Amino acid sequence: MTPISVTFYVAQTGKIKSIYRGPENFLALQSEYGVYPYVLGDFSGNDFYVNVETETANPRLEMPLITIVPEIIADGQPQDIISEVPIGSSVTWPDGYIERANNDTVTFGVDLPGTYTFRLTAVPYLDQEVVIEAIAAT
């Protein structure tokens, strides 16, 4: 069985109606009986979303992120690291904290050197990870 993930999404409002994650054959069976009437194709992975207003399957697009700086100094000073973040995106910080982006820039500062991974999620975009390296201050 191939695991799949399908997001049922209303394009005009941005509201997610529901998300299905599980075996592909179970979703096909549910669709046959009308539980998920908007499933119109092969939804392997998490590469598609379903617009319930138009009843169409749409490919998720690359998020238009720009990594401003992939490397920062571990001096605790916040600095802009990612821009062009879609407003309303879920930003998962390296410590697991999740927040909604209320502007188009992610700002980050840290005292400890290391590698820090951010995960950004926003329908209709593919999830995106950005890795930032913090190097020791000299």
Describe the structure.
There is one protein chain. This protein has 2 domains: 3-59, no CATH class; 66-136, Immunoglobulin-like, CATH 2.60.40. The protein has 1 helix and 12 strands, in the order ββαββββββββββ. The protein has one helix at 24-32, and strands at residues 3-10, 15-23, 48-51, 56-59, 66-67, 71-74, 79-83, 90-92, 98-100, 105-108, 114-121, 128-136.
CATH architecture descriptor of the largest domain: Sandwich
Question: How far do the termini sit from each other?
Answer: 53 Å
The CATH class of the largest domain: Mainly Beta
Gross morphology is elongated
Strand order of the largest sheet: 6-12-11-8-9
Integer-rounded radius of gyration: 18 Å
* Protein structure class: mainly beta
CATH superfamily name of the largest domain?
Immunoglobulins
Give the helix level as a range of percent.
under 10%
Number of strands: 12
Largest sheet: 5 strands, mixed
At a glance:
The chain has 138 residues and is mainly β.
Helix-strand layout with pairing:
Blueprint: E1 3-10, E2 15-23, H1 24-32, E3 48-51, E4 56-59, E5 66-67, E6 71-74, E7 79-83, E8 90-92, E9 98-100, E10 105-108, E11 114-121, E12 128-136
Parallel strand pairs: 1-3, 6-12
Antiparallel strand pairs: 1-2, 3-4, 5-7, 7-10, 8-9, 8-11, 11-12
Task: List the keywords.
Immunoglobulin-like, 138 residues, single chain, 4-stranded mixed β-sheet, 1 helix, elongated
